[in-house]
Amino acid sequence: LSKKESPKKFAEELMQYDVISFDVFDTLIFRPFSTPSDVFFLVGDELGYMDFKRIRIEMEWKARIRKYKETGSYEVTLEEIYDLLSEEAGIEKQKAMETEFQIEQKVCYANPYMFRVIENLRKTDKRLIITSDMYLGTEQIKKLLENCGYEQFDAYYVSCDINKSKSKGDIYEEIKQREKRIKLKPQISFLHVGDNQIADIEQAEKHGFTSRLYKNINEIGCPYRPEEMSAITGGIY
User: Fold this and answer.
1) 68 contacts 163 by C-beta, under 8 angstroms
2) Alpha carbon distance 131, 198 (integer Å)
3) What tens digit of pLDDT does each residue of 95-152 get?
4) Is 22 helix (H, G, I), strand (E, B) or coil?
5) Residue 19's beta-bridge partner residues?
6) What SS3 state is found at 57?
7) How far apart are CA 76 and CA 161, in angstroms?
8) How far apart are CA 189 and CA 191, in angstroms?
9) What angle do CA 230, 234, 236 make, to 5 degrees?
């Protein structure tokens, strides 16, 4: 029902552009969950905190609100989230942060289709970059990608490190300015590949990128998954 063109053919389409940008989660790498926040079930289990998923989601949102009031940006780091978790829930910050990232490393795996696309692109002289809206920093994103088998990319643009995002669109302008300085020429063609219709497609095109949508596998699969069961019962199902 969802036939894709071959990875080689897709890579050949992308080769028309000078700088090729990729989203990370749900594009280059997958988690074995219906929603990204499901990873917090495992973190809470490891830490021994009941209802950790709800607490973690709530603290992230509060951290974003606090950051916006202070800086005008909603982009937060993992450390800023756990600063608030520690303040309000008494969770040991360093241990909890390390546990979350260790579990991310354990569960994340490469999208086999995009892995082959990247392999084909690496045979060219095209510049391959990462563009991600994420609370994990650049070094952590690098580590996750390496653990999934990807070689190093030419550049990493991560929202929490530069306080600009795909969802807002200003990260694309930042990328264009930086990449033009690196390439030393004013006319460069940019393409971005991602799974979010607004952040990866509409905002990219609004800021002068060509875009390619990689359909989110969870959005495709969710109509066939249980919604009215508990996490444990639904997982068994």
Assistant:
1) no
2) 14
3) 999 999 999 999 999 999 999 999 999 999 899 999 999 999 999 999 999 999 999 9
4) strand
5) 127, 190
6) helix
7) 8
8) 7
9) 125
